[in-house]
# Entry
Amino acid sequence: MARQESDVNVFSTNLILIGMPGAGKSTIGLLLAKELAKNFIDTDILIQLREGKTLQDILHQHGYQRLRDIEEEILLSVKCSNHIIATGGSAVYSEAGMKHLNSFGPVIFLDVPLEVLQQRIHNYETRGIARRPGQSFHELFEERRALYQKFANITIDCTDKTQEQILQEIIYQEAEAFAEMDA
# Structure
């Protein structure tokens, strides 16, 4: 695990969820918040609230790079404790943003197979996904997966798992990580 602090208070620490669109970051994040008595933040919603428009509207009006820039600003503005933070799928394009979030808690990658994501994402063209024009979902998956792996302190293999199983694995791996930090 990348974090070295030995006196981390599990109840004041954030858990940051990363992964592809459709990986379940928001859904699992809400379940985790309820299970662990933490607050919940979805950075895509913070972007939409600040800008007063949907992610897709931002893409149409300003392009994917501007959406990524806005996302970095939002990530860098997050300063909280005792939260589950579900990031947008493109958060990992911001090294500064990811390092900032990781300073408040571990980054957890929800690793979902491409085939499952393709079944879940029926609105790829209109979902508000920050991607290069013409970039296929498969190309986006390959590009981002390397970044998710780079920034993750914990990777959860979500293959053939229920939401409850994923939730319990996150809780178990997080407890293990904190135990190692105390050792």
